[in-house]
Amino acid sequence: MRRLAIRLALLVGGALTVYLLYLTREIHRQSVTDEARRADVIVIMGAAKYRTRPSPVLKARLDHGLHLYQQGLAPRIITTGGAGGDPVFTEGEVSRAYLISRNVPSEAILVEAQADSTVHSAAAVAEIMRRMRMKSCILVSDGYHIFRTKRMLEFRGLTVYGSPRPSEDSTGFQQWRLCARQAVGYLLWTAGVHI
Fold first, then answer.
1. Distance from CA of residue 6 to its chain's centroid?
2. Which residue from 109, 105, 173, 124 is spatially nearest to 144, judged by alpha carbons?
3. Which residues pair with 160 in a beta bridge?
4. CB 194 within 8 A of CB 116
5. Structural domain 34-168, CATH architecture
6. What gap in Å lies between CA 5 and CA 169, rounded to an integer?
7. CA–CA separation, 107 vs 62, rounded Å?
């Protein structure tokens, strides 16, 4: 009986490892695929900020979203992200201010400023879009982050086109490590664990 349990555990562990490797490859494939096309809104996922300034990662996401907006691919932008421990400034509000300083009209920007995780941001964005009768979005984030966030939004009935911010390293070890980490996060999300 013990031998059977060990074999079963090895079989399940092997199957899980193969599935995680498959997911990692799919996440990497999505991370280098730009699907941008006309949509109802551009969703820019939040990242760290320094009080009133976006971090280099957030700035790169914002610049990419701004470029898509200037191309006329969507009439509105949603910025996301909560305070992250800052008692005054949120990622969503800092992003909004940055875009306004780049001549995006304030009325074209919607802000989700409460979420503290990707799961919460996706839920809040879906609710904003539902209330405004928007059905499609261009999702802007780091490449490794697109797959999981896209699935979360699609789960809520939205049409999502991934558009990763430009990155210098899309094939190195660090990128694959981030993709593997997202694979674990995606697997946990599908199992109902919200991280």
1. 38
2. 173
3. 137
4. no
5. 3-Layer(aba) Sandwich (3.40)
6. 43
7. 17
- Cβ–Cβ under 8 Å, residues 85 and 73: no
Nearest to 64 by CA among 168, 167, 149: 167
- Other Cβ atoms closer than 10 A to 34: 15
Residue 167, class by beta-carbon neighbours within 10 Å (0-12 exposed, 13-18 middle, 19+ buried)?
middle
Average pLDDT in the chain: 92
Q: Which amino acid is present at 126?
A: A
Structure tokens at 118: 């990707």
Calculate the alpha carbon distances from 13 to 8, 22, 74, 134 in Å. 8, 14, 44, 41
Rounded distance between C-alpha atoms, residue 33 and residue 97, angstroms: 29
Give me the pLDDT at residue 144, please.
94
Task: State the DSSP H helix or E strand holding residue 74, giving kind and residue range, or none if neither.
Answer: none
| Residues recorded for the chain | 195
List Cβ neighbours of 181 (8 Å cut-off, separation of 6 or more).
144
Question: So where are the chain's domains?
Answer: 34-168
Six token digits for residue 110 = 């919607």
Q: What is the pLDDT of residues 171-185, one digit of tens each?
A: 678 889 999 999 999
> Which tokens hold the place of 78?
């949603």
pTM of the shown model: 0.91
Strands of the 77-80 sheet, one edge to the other: 109-112, 77-80, 41-44, 136-141, 159-164
Q: In the chain, where does DSSP find H-type helix? A: 2-31, 56-70, 91-101, 118-131, 143-155, 173-190
